[in-house]
């Protein structure tokens, strides 16, 4: 039976991008080979942070947990969720009228059927053309004053009118140079750049809602 390694799941609301503020059941899968130095999900891959036990959930367990929360939308994230085959998971969620959104670095092929794909490319592993084409929105993490131009030169010809959210890397969210770069790019109005933020971090909703695998819902209790 198909199982996926789960770092945590939680019912909360989307704090980023075009669906900001909408309720969603988050499924954070384990593992990421991209290894960004400022990763805010290091518990999914970094040796200093990974838990002792990584539990694998059956697809039906994830589905029932989403249904139990009466979720109309699930966000599959990580780690890097696309290192896993997500076809069975997305099929099960879709068949139960739960919209499925994906958050990926775009560095691995997307296997699954998604209603919304957000690609956040990282310099530590180049995104695939197929993922960039499938994206409905982009999220660029601005961690240096050159970040925006770097991506513009690399993949700007593929933006094609889709929104590009500019997020200050969280530890630099008050850095005047980084914020100024974002301000200028948005006001240039050459692409559909939008000033982004991780609103859920201001609200602290993830910490309140997280369910680790060890406290997962047992199928037998449903
Ligand atoms: S791609 Fe995402 S999950 Fe992976 S290391 Fe980078 S920020 Fe972390």
Brief descriptors of the model:
single chain; 222 residues; alpha/beta; TIM Barrel; nine-stranded mixed β-sheet; 7 helices; 26% helix; 23% strand; disordered C terminus; binds iron/sulfur cluster
Outline of the structure:
By secondary structure, the chain is of the alpha/beta class. It has helices spanning 59-68, 87-95, 129-134, 147-155, 176-188, 199-203, 205-209, and strands at 3-13, 23-29, 56-58, 73-77, 99-104, 116-119, 137-142, 164-168, 193-195.
Poorly predicted ranges (pLDDT <50, ≥5 residues)? 214-222
Bound ligand species: iron/sulfur cluster
CATH architecture: Alpha-Beta Barrel
The percentage helix is: 25-40%
CATH superfamily: Aldolase class I
Largest sheet strand order: 3-1-2-4-5-6-7-8-9
Kindly report how far apart the N and C termini lie: 19 Å
Strand fraction: 15-25%
**CATH class type:** Alpha Beta
How many structural domains can be distinguished in the coordinates? 1
Structural class: alpha/beta
Assign the CATH topology.
Answer: TIM Barrel
Largest sheet geometry: 9 strands, mixed
Mean pLDDT: 93
- Structural shape: globular
Order of helices and strands: EEEHEHEEHEHEHEHH
């Amino acid at each position: 039976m198909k199982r996926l390694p789960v770092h945590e799941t939680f019912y909360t609301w989307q704090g980023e991008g075009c669906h900001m503020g909408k309720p969603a059941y988050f499924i954070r899968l384990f593992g990421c080979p991209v290894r960004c130095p400022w990763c805010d999900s290091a518990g999914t891959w970094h040796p200093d942070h990974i838990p002792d036990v990584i539990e694998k959930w059956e697809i039906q367990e994830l589905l029932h947990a989403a249904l139990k929360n009466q979720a109309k939308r699930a966000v599959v994230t990580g780690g890097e969720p696309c290192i896993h085959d997500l076809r069975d998971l997305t099929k099960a969620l879709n068949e139960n009228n739960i919209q499925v959104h994906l958050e990926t670095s775009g560095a691995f092929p997307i296997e699954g059927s998604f209603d919304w794909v957000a690609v956040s490319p990282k310099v530590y592993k180049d995104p695939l053309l197929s993922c960039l084409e499938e994206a409905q929105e982009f999220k660029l993490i601005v961690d240096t004053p050159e970040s925006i131009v770097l991506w513009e030169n690399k993949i700007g010809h593929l933006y094609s009118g889709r929104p590009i959210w500019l997020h200050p890397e969280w530890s630099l969210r008050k850095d005047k140079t980084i914020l100024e770069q974002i301000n200028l790019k948005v006001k240039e109005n050459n692409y559909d750049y939008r000033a982004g933020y991780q609103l859920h971090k201001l609200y602290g909703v993830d910490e309140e809602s997280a369910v680790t695998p060890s406290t997962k819902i047992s199928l037998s209790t449903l």
